[in-house]
Amino acid sequence: MKKIVVSVTGASGAMYADLLLKTLHSLREQVEVSVVFSATAKTIYTQELQKDITLYDFQEFSDTDFYAPFASGSAQYDALVVCPCSMGTLGRVAHGVSNSLITRTADVMLKERKTLILVPREMPYNLVHIENMKLLTLSGAIICPANPTFYTNPRSIEEVCQTVIDRIIDLLKLRHSTKRWGK
After folding, report:
1. Which of 9, 90, 98, 125 has its CA 20 to 30 A from that of 105?
2. pLDDT at 12 over 80
């Protein structure tokens, strides 16, 4: 059973977070999931999706709760996915600014050499964004931009977004079925 934290920041792209939580819920025999929303993320989520946040049966922690188990490496969490990841959060993580539970957890993942997946949705990138992504990549993080694929012939916005989620699930090394290139 993998212990995974999903953090949602205020970047546009709440559908990605919603689909990620839904997909992880369908894989609950493989994962234990904890969720952290930034204050802005909750506003963006309800604005973009026009519905209340769906947590399924996952435990939510406040972004100010530094007593959450995954705020320490001793809790042995396996991964953190920040989806969507604002460039502000990405920059704070790149420079070791642990001023929230989200950024502290990212710092823990890096120092413990665990899986850290950042899913930036913003674009275009400026040089600061690129340098921050380079620094994080060199530190062991995975930058997984929310760039969908189209060889699956998606027929809805949700299906387009799901292609990004399927890639995240692959990066977490979880078993799932999805359409793959060449098959």
Report:
1. 125
2. yes
